[in-house]
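Justification of computing resources. Each target in the renewal requires a structure prediction run like the one illustrated here; the chain below, 312 residues long, is used simply to show the kind of job we budget for.
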Amino acid sequence: MAKRDIVVIGGSAGSIEALLNLLRSLPVNLPAAIFVVIHLTPRGKSVLAEIIDRQTGGLPAKQASEGERISPGRIYVAPPDRHLLVANSHIHLARGPKEGLHRPSINVTFRSAAATYGPRVIGVLLSGMLDDGASGLWEIANRGGVAVVQEPSEAQFPSMPLNALQDADISYRLPARGIGTILPKLVTGEESAEEKECVPHEHQPEKYSGFSCPECHGPLFQKEGPGPLQFRCRIGHILSLKTLLDEHTSTQERKLYEAVLALEEGADLALFTATRTDETQGRQLKQEAEQLRRHAREIKKLLEEREMSAID
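Resulting structure tokens:
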């Protein structure tokens, strides 16, 4: 049975309580290193490591630092605005391109752990919106590791666990405390997860998708091959189909509001100019202002009446 001593845990909205419940269930002598990635605001100071230390009373937790050596029985927390990569015997922090609009990205950490430690990895995905973590769990399972998700009915925001269940070979779906109970058994070998064949990583060809990256507006290339559908731009931003759709929807709304602003400002400028010209031109400018306001009202109506389909 493979030794499983690398545990990577990811979560987003609604995941802190689940994370704390999970960690409270772990023994203080767990012979594994734990890496925690929670979506954080980039400009804020994270106190998550201190919260874990104060409220769980178990394994010591600290915010990860660049080049830090990995030791069992420790919890390493990703800092804001940095990807946490699990390298061979040490941690690497990077401010590389966002993945799924996030930095830190759960997928980045999961994928790095899978690439470095293969079947020694246990990946855990908790509550959150959209689908960060799904492709990372797929990579963990694909390389012989164990993939675990929080029971969606318990998760405050079940989208991330549900998407992982659709995209990856999940070994366990459990409540947070149940995950905390089974993790030590997976680490020590008392619980025997189904052994999976470790599939070597191969370069997967990409083709131009016809879409543009919502982050940098460069061309997006679609990955072809097994695993969840993903898009990557030349800069390195990576998005799932659902995240791409969600971000483009936000972009459409933002651009339409920008159009309303430009039309209304144009109407104000036309009226301002009308007071500083002759009567004929003034009348034409007032008509132009009314036309611009009419267009602005039509776009506002479009925004108010727009209906969007829910994507599971």
